[in-house]
């Protein structure tokens, strides 16, 4: 896990996302699973896109998977990133789905 870069705006947790951020601080990756149909979701949400359910449980993920796509950023997109490029943003299909 990367260290926080000083000066970057931080996400503001809300009731839907606060558990995700708490677990991530402990270096644990969790995603939501719909209690009705078991579809997995990230980012967290309040309504299941598949069945319309509104009850979710948090499921731990291994962090393993296949790189689906990536992009390398060469130009800083925020002043706090000056001198910290290039960096990669990666979309991963997790083994769990």
From TrEMBL:
SUPFAM superfamilies with a match to the protein in the record: Nucleic acid-binding proteins
Ranges for domain ChsH2 rubredoxin-like zinc ribbon: 21-53
Protein name in UniProt: DUF35 domain-containing protein
Span of domain ChsH2 C-terminal OB-fold: 58-97
One Pfam family hit: zf-ChsH2
């Amino acid at each position: 896990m990367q260290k926080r870069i000083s000066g970057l705006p931080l996400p503001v947790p809300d009731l839907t996302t606060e558990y995700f951020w708490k677990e991530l601080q402990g270096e644990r990756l969790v995603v939501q699973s719909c209690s009705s149909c078991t579809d997995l979701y990230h980012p967290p949400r309040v309504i299941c896109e598949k069945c319309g359910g509104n009850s979710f449980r948090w499921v731990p993920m291994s962090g393993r998977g296949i790189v689906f796509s990536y992009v390398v950023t060469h130009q800083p997109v925020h002043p706090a990133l000056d001198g910290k490029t290039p960096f990669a943003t990666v979309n991963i299909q997790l083994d769990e789905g």
